[in-house]
Amino acid sequence: MTEDLLGQLRERLGEYVDLRHAGALLHWDQEVFMPPKGAEARGRQLATLSGLAHRFFTAPETGDLLKALEDRRDSLDPDAAKLVEVASYDYDRATRLPEAFVREFAEEQSKAYHVWVKARKESDFRQFEPNLARIVELNRRKADYMGYEGTPYNALLEDYERGVTAETIAPIFETLAREQRDLVQRITNASQRPRAPWLKRDWSEDAQWAFSIRILEDIGYDMEAGRQDRSVHPFTTAFDVNDVRVTTRLAKDDPFSGLMGSLHEGGHALYEQGYSAKDWRTPLAGPVSLGIHESQSRMWENCVGRSLPFWERYAPVMREYFPEALEGVGAEQIYAAVNTVEPSLIRVEADECTYNLHIILRFEIERALIEGELAVADVPAAWNGKVSDFLGLETPDDARGCLQDIHWSHGAMGYFPTYALGNLYAAQILERILEELPGLWDHVRAGEFQPLLQWLRARIHQQGRRYTAAEMIAEVTGKPPESGPFLRYLAEKYTPLYGLR
Ligand code: ZN
Q: What is the predicted pLDDT for the residue at 103?
């Protein structure tokens, strides 16, 4: 009886996963190949498919199966028990929002997105203000439907970073803000600054493409189970563990923006290719959280791809692809160039020293909006004040200020903190890896990435969704999320690079 129920549940969840992945494929095509005139029909197809998937998953049949299996919990093996637990959690969250509310939210999202595009283009927050006010209101109602302890912001955070609360991250972020602001100031005032006049040379896009594929293959990305294409915004998407695709964008005047994009998305893709075979086509084959996902991309992009040992290996390799542009340029020069610190107004262009500051100011603002401590009309002033305080920069207009990100126009609040948490987790995980794999940098210097990948596979990728984010960090590092490892990582890298004391 139990086996029979379990078989039915697996089949139902499998069909749900298939519907979701079919939608993801349509979305991938939209971003990569679709001609512009296809947009309207594609929008309808995506809405139909996601509506079908949602109705199928939240149908009473799913709930009845889950309930029957929960009653038989004692007779389930650990994997089956975990599957029922995770699916029940998803089912519970997915059925808390009334259908009328979901529709209202979706309609506002689509309106808000179009208004935001125009407001950003004309750099005029006032056009977007009424929409943002409705988005905040809808998110507050969503929090009430979902339920929470502490601040309503926690209900929103839960969707992206299960088990992590605003009360946990606020003090960590305060420490980061203080320490990183101080470090950035010292770097800005430093007399020693890396210069890279050779960056002004010509960087063939064909060579950039070939080099990025070479790097993806070297770090262990399975090209038989994935591919790289170009898109306006780089992203990773998966339709199965055996079909995980990445995109990147190339700049003719900067060979590293595309390469680092490939490494970043490659880190996400290694995670998705690494789920355990026994979890395929179930909700267990998924990321723990967005923060854990981001920790994998930051591990490969920053911890590895911006390290000196990596460039000791790859400076000569890269010179084969760019014999003229890299003539006379060595590992140390590339290392310095890819670690240039420059406070900027735009989050997506930020370096490792300033990135979290962009996130913290967004977290503080959206939390204050949700808690009713900040009026929507005051967002630009609050934003510009924090940019001045954290980064020492004047914000000349809304387009380069509070209108720069797409997230709020999509209705997403509680998402931003996961980017900073990804940086923190990566540094925390790296400290643990170095204790267990003290030869890590020798491996990297030799272009051997399997020891690192196998470590990540065993401890993180193959676990799928068996842990919450907080549990996984505790399990892997023995400690709760903290700022210390990331701050040590920054100090060790940037003190010598900028001749700080
Ligand atoms: Zn990412």
A: 86
